[in-house]
Amino acid sequence: MSAVATAFGLVFDPYVLAVIMGSAVFGMFVGAMPGLTATMATALLVPVTFFMSPVPALGAIVTATAMAIFAGDIPAAMLRMPGTPASAAYADESYEMTKKGQLDLCMGVNLVFSVLGGIFGVIILIVLAPVLAEVAINFSSFEYFWLACLGLTCAVFIGTGDPLKGLLSLFIGLAIGCIGIDPAAGQPRFTFGNVDLLSGINFIPTLIGMFAVSELLRGAVTMEKAGKMVQQSVGNMFAGLGGVTRKYWKNFIRGSVIGTVIGALPGAGADIAAWVSYAVSKKLSKEPEKFGTGHIEGIVDSTSANNSALGGAWIPALVFGIPGDSITAIVIGVLYMKGMNPGPTVFLQTPELIYAVFIIFILANLIMFPLGWAAIKSAKQILRVPRNILLPVILIFCMVGSFAMTNSLYGVVLMVVMGVFGWLLEEHGIPVAPLILGLVLGEMLEQNFMSSMIKSNGSFIGFLDRPIAGTLGVLTLLLWGAMLWKVLPFGRRQPAAA
Asked: Could you tell me how far CA 64 lies from the centroid of its own chain?
């Protein structure tokens, strides 16, 4: 208990609290800007942490990350431009709610369930860190291959309308993901002699193009209609939340559990957690036909998942020194820099610092509530700006974000090309969300498949040899079989004879 008391004293120091508040504002701003990701917010804070002691340094990173993940929901709902990749899974759903005049309810749900999901993830981090880390450490390339396959299966559920168009979009994303250097042989693929394409198709400019630029093009083409569409009154964000909570409390728990578990898997993170949770929500919903039309159910699941994944990602990072996502990879570097070697011994050598991290996590999620409310109220004034002024300003921010990810005009060109491509796809009824999912998981799928084939000397039996891999493999194959059965003529229900 003395370590806990020491941790409270370390956190509630005026200097540390000031750092946390400043980082919260910074993270909220970065997350709300399309293209400026939570990882970027963390990376930008690292040079500042050189001059801090361990507690304020970790406090700055934890707080900025939590705020950035939530803040990405704000432009996603208001402008269909996800501020961070973790918000892309339900950007369309949120924007459809805005078009229906339900922006207040959407933002209220995003804020409240982001806070609750974040706290859920922290509680699991505190209580079950060693147990979950033990499971996560048993994952090899075989398990990650099947996990990627399960994630790609989500494309059938997240796409609205025709499932075949969703699969087409998914395969386009997988094909785009093949551009670059072969991870196994090291040979360039589909680069056409272009040096920039050797690094592959950068995910962030593609995300900005597919969602933001395509929406800007749509707004420019239908300027008058778009200008009228976005006008929303600034009302009470918490009206109706009681009913949503009573109806979808199981969705919150399910999304939070999915987020925490996926966050605890090294290399997964909040982005994949949101996609998987949204797909599971649609699959298990009693009203799946409402998804994609502005239905709050999928948002409850996804926004709970991506925030709870933050706490889960720290489990392998603290217990084994293995990053759960790109953010905790940076955090591990900061821990080493501060003389804290992550691993089982960190709980024995510096327990007060670990407890301080737990307290900061809870404090950051509590701060998110008032600060998020203020950010939403401020951001909603953007909708009052005339569309012919707003669109060019947003385009400038998109260009800055794309340029920052590649440090060259390649990112800007890629953003524009993908924006036009995404707009053409949607004009023909092909959803872009499965394409983004394919681009996210394609590299993970290919790398783990090639690694697994090398380990098993080319034998496919190796994919089912291990207990966890075998379980995931059987589940995946059964799911694929059930989906195939439904589309085949003899698998469909025949109408009853008159």
From this structure: 15
